[in-house]
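Sample entry (187 residues):
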Amino acid sequence: MKQLDYVIQSLRIRKALPYIPIGSEILDIGCADGALFKIAGNKLRQGVGVDPGIDMEIVCPNYRLIPGKFPENIPLNVKFDVITMLAVFEHLTLDNQANIVRAIPTYLRGNGIVIMTIPSPQVDKILEWLKMVRLIDGMNLEEHHGFNVQQVYQVMDTNFVLSHFEKFQFGLNNLFVFTKKLSSQQT
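Predicted structure, serialized as tokens:
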């Protein structure tokens, strides 16, 4: 990754951090190099990151990074306070998005939250230009498929309630914070 890639990644993480409670157990789907855990400070008690781009498991004092995908490579017996997907959803097909959203409640504690950042589709042209002039590597830019950000509401509707939404980075990026819907059988 180039320096500007790291800056863009850091801006997304810093936008999400205020919504992560202190001392959280965090699952970061699409964790890349584990930057969220490195920046999280006291927000992180324990963390697990999963990413298909990781070659081998990396174990650190309060987090570990696992090669692979969610939910396939995460043990069923673990629960998290927070699940993050920062600049991940736009890389997935609608079927993969739906599969992930169906699996999340199994891994999320009853009062848990899901934090997502999703760039607006017009960002792709900006990133393509930045990549063309070699200012960024563009972290899997070829996987972007012009995802309509409004579809997030439909995909997340079944199991989650939107608790916060805002645009940032001049309206080119979107932050979603969802809470898990609780049924009378869930605790």
